[in-house]
Amino acid sequence: MKGALRTLHIRCGDDIRDKLAEAGIEGDFLSFADPAWLGPPPASNAWIAGRAALIAERTGLPRQRIRADLGDAYWRLARAPADYGRIVLWCEHDLYDQAALARVLASFAPRKKLPRIELIAIDRFRGIKRFIGLGQLSVAQLASLWPRRKRISRRQLVLGARTWAALRAPTPELLEALCKSDLRVLPFLKAALQRQLQELPWTKDGLSLTERNALAALAKGPRSAAEVYAEAQAKRDPQPFMGDLFFWSVLRDLLEAPRPPIAVSAATRRTAWHKRVLRLTPEGRALLAGKLDWQTTGPLERWVGGVAVVRGAPTWRWNPRAGRVA
């Protein structure tokens, strides 16, 4: 690649960094791993500190390390249009990647002068039965994607900015309106945003899709948290996007609720979270049977992007039959 443009590769994680180098695809690498789907969004004047605190609370990772990594990522993202002649965005189809893509595009949208920005985005790969992400691909398979990159247009930048605003909005109306609009310039965005809306309480039982999948994974008996994660994400979720630490935070909220639908076996309470054995409680079985609405039991506060799911807030719900917010 002698004489090529100075290139920055941006990906929401480190999973392909070394493989790109092995493939001979030159350039610097930026891991922009802020989970843009995760709420609540902090005040703009405390963005880095607020995001670091939120991610640390949800994952259990050290806040100072997260803050340092996020600070570096946002600084490099802001500098990228001036420092590079080409920026290449690598992503797949899921909510994590599509939300991160929107966040990055939104940061570039106000700029009048931009370098060449290119996108590599896929939702499948020949020979892989269930494609989940770019991290599954070999060095050779990643290299085969390089010629398929396409230049980002102004329409895509504008749509990224609109999407980022909708993800931070205090009601789901902007997200739903986006889902009803023409999103073909970012072909994987609609399904990803619908997956975000499915994290709202559902009309039939008050559970989010992730919460229901977790309970369903325990329907046949006790299982470890790691087994619940594998079952819920790999087999039940139509578009898995949540890493194991974020999934554990969902289980933790269920365990700590006033009327928990799951419980930890006494013998495993002090083990690492993924080894803890979980079982359904009577509340959990009632939820799966459709005999109880989770929101009537006073669950812990949670957020779907900028939408608060908490007692006293407007009761936004996902209607699976209508395929829309109710």
Give the helices and strands, then pairings.
Elements: E1 7-11, H1 17-22, E2 28-31, H2 47-59, H3 63-83, E3 86-92, H4 95-108, E4 116-122, H5 139-145, E5 150-151, H6 154-168, H7 173-180, H8 189-197, H9 209-216, E6 223-224, H10 225-236, H11 244-255, E7 262-264, E8 277-280, H12 282-288, E9 302-304, E10 307-309, E11 318-319, E12 324-325
Parallel strand pairs: 1-2, 1-3, 3-4
Antiparallel strand pairs: 4-5, 6-8, 7-8, 9-10, 11-12
Structure description:
The chain has helices spanning 17-22, 47-59, 63-83, 95-108, 139-145, 154-168, 173-180, 189-197, 209-216, 225-236, 244-255, 282-288; strands spanning 7-11, 28-31, 86-92, 116-122, 150-151, 223-224, 262-264, 277-280, 302-304, 307-309, 318-319, 324-325. Strands 2-1-3-4-5 form a 5-stranded mixed sheet, covered by helices on one side. The chain folds into 2 domains: 7-175, no CATH class; 198-325, Orthogonal Bundle (Arc Repressor Mutant, subunit A). The protein is α/β, with parallel strands linked by helices. The chain is globular, with a radius of gyration of 20 Å. It has 12 helices and 12 strands.
Structure summarized in a few sentences:
The protein is an alpha/beta fold. It is built from twelve helices and twelve strands. The strands form four sheets. It has a five-stranded mixed β-sheet, with helices on one face.
